[in-house]
Amino acid sequence: MQLKCSKCQKIIVIADDKLPADKEKAMVKCPACQQVLVFSIPMALRKLTVQDDKTVITSVQTGHQHPMLCHVNDRSEYKLEKGINIIGREADISITSDRYISRRHCMIEVVEKFGEMQCILTDDGSLSQSGEPSTNGTFLNDLRLTRHDRLFLSHGDKVRIGRTEFLFKND
Predict the structure, then answer these.
(1) Which end of the chain has fewer CB within 10 Å, C or N?
(2) Alpha helix locations (H) across the chain?
(3) Domain at 68-169: CATH code
(4) Stretch 10-34: mean pLDDT
(5) What values do phi and psi take at 18, rounded to 5?
(6) Which residue did the predictor score with more confidence, 35 or 23?
(7) Are 165 and 158 in contact (CB under 8 A)?
């Protein structure tokens, strides 16, 4: 799991096996600036059942077959497929209504891990000929992604590209 420090923007990587399985949220201190970050633990890592006095971690299947981006204004839905989904004006997920969106603006990688679909948002410049991230930016919950960010999406996250805002659904 990766987190981005809200103070210094450093990316913090936490191994899945280091996350507490019996909690909904956890805290970590940024090693660079000492900012305390509170974050949600993915559902697949925190579902617990008890069998014969033993705690067993079980995976959780999501309600949607596929995660989706839902346009906030016109309520249109864009299904995210397993693998890499390129978002832009001329891409896998085509958003032609916003001139501030690049032809190949950003990507969401969908992988299945622990029986759950996990989605990773990236705006790393690998999609453009110049190698630079999109000009008008990709934002996750009002935080602009930088070139090296690979951030996990959670149900209810706001994703903004150009001037278009989406709600991420994965429940």
Answers:
(1) C
(2) none
(3) 2.60.200.20
(4) 81
(5) -95, -5
(6) 35
(7) yes
